[in-house]
Amino acid sequence: MSGGAHAPLPPGATAPDNEAAASHLFERHRSGQQVFDGRLLDVRCDQVVLADGTPASREYVVHPGAAVVVPILDDGRLVMERQFRYPVGRVMLEFPAGKLDAGEPPLQCARRELAEETGYRAREWAVAGRMHNAMAYSTEVIHVLFARGLSAGERALDAGELIDLALLHEHELDAAAADGTLTDAKTLVALLWLQRWRAGAWKLHWVTGE
Amino acid sequence: MSGGAHAPLPPGATAPDNEAAASHLFERHRSGQQVFDGRLLDVRCDQVVLADGTPASREYVVHPGAAVVVPILDDGRLVMERQFRYPVGRVMLEFPAGKLDAGEPPLQCARRELAEETGYRAREWAVAGRMHNAMAYSTEVIHVLFARGLSAGERALDAGELIDLALLHEHELDAAAADGTLTDAKTLVALLWLQRWRAGAWKLHWVTGE
């Protein structure tokens, strides 16, 4: 293997928990440059060396990360959104979500996005887990949080942010996933968390605080 | 609203099934250009007009789509992969998956990727559903398929494709999702499909054929 032990890790890297067992799969950063710097997208192209010594290039989007919230009303219904998503050309049913500001903890982002997009504030929060949603070409990680003890308030949408609210029962969400009308990956993963938590199989640790 | 009724739809668009109810959320394409043309990534920037008349720009990746396979062995174990994903800097546990070739039907892609990456061929296939995994900035859609009646054969990995195989029981996959070691969104959505199908809640329509 030609990669040095102290070669820099890629931008999205944290210490892999399975490093010892999987070092034969690793890729080492050699050089890199930004190839597009847009209003939204930061696109990079890096030269890397595979564990077997093969050189390769890797193109990817640098993303700040995001948080998605499962907001549960006292009557059990879920606070959701409908929003036009231009790249896929359709209105999508989603849980409230948004990008992390620089250095922003996921819980703070979740609280902010829930309030801005829906007007709801939550008495209790739980951090469930996280997902990598486009890891072949993006550093993005989406944190999944739960919110309950909700109280309604004023929304604060950004200019040009057009979002409808929808209150759905869990069985309606499940049916929309089954029949193919719900296709947003982060919302489907959030539904998995919701169902496994309701079943008592996966645990949530709730904390109190606006 | 200033958008014309016959303005072109964005690249990833198919006829929305909720057009009548949601036209107040639509965005109309005005002009666009390619801003990066790499080996892997095709990045565009379009000028659009929101439903309320506000102009905006939209940056996104044009993606050919992908297929992910849930391959079930006769003993119930699942055929999975471990692969280093450079943008997130770690080895990921995933179901076998790959990008659609131009014009390739999802089932054909799934059959090809399963054979190439794992060596397994399947006697029965089912198309489960699909997900949009990064719809804020990518046209990508990932089709979810199931395969059973598996027989082992030769793999045909591309040069530089370093993939370990792993055979997991469903309860191991569930535990890995719960404890945060499994974070790949398409694999988590596939797990949701697997659990809802096993529970008899979601239906799969199996077809026979290599």
Question: TL;DR?
Answer:
The first copy, chain A, has 210 residues and is α+β, with helices and mostly antiparallel strands. Chain A has helices spanning 19-22, 106-118, 170-178, 185-198; strands at 27-37, 42-50, 55-61, 66-72, 78-85, 90-94, 97-99, 121-132, 141-151, 164-168, 206-208. Chain A has two domains: 1-62, no CATH class; 66-202, Nucleoside Triphosphate Pyrophosphohydrolase (Alpha-Beta Complex).
How would you describe the overall organization of this protein?
The structure is a homodimer of 210-residue chains. Chain A has 210 residues and is of the alpha+beta class. Chain A has 2 domains: 1-62, no CATH class; 66-202, Nucleoside Triphosphate Pyrophosphohydrolase, CATH 3.90.79.10. Chain A is built from 4 helices and 11 strands. In chain A, strands 7-4-9-8-11 form a 5-stranded mixed β-sheet, with helices on both faces. In chain A, a hairpin with a 4-residue loop joins strand 1 and strand 2. Chain A is globular and about 60 Å long. At the A-B interface, strand 1, strand 2, strand 3, strand 5 and strand 6 of A face strand 1, strand 2, strand 3, strand 5 and strand 6 of B.
CATH class label of the largest domain in chain A: Alpha Beta
Identify the strand order in the major beta sheet of chain A: 7-4-9-8-11
* Oligomeric state of shown chains: homodimer
Biggest beta sheet attributes of chain A: 5 strands, mixed
Number of helices of chain A: 4
User: Do you know the CATH topology of the largest domain in chain A?
Assistant: Nucleoside Triphosphate Pyrophosphohydrolase
CATH level-two architecture of the largest domain in chain A: Alpha-Beta Complex
Strand coverage percent of chain A: 35-45%
| Strand element count of chain A | 11
Overall helicity of chain A? 10-25%
Largest interface: A-B, 82 and 82 residues
Distance between the termini of chain A: 51 Å
Low-confidence stretches of chain A: 1-8, 14-19
Query: What structural class should be given to the helix and strand makeup of chain A?
Result: alpha+beta
Order of helices and strands of chain A: HEEEEEEEHEEEHHE
**Averaged pLDDT of chain A:** 91
Q: What Rg of chain A do the Cα atoms give?
A: 20 Å
Global morphology of chain A = globular
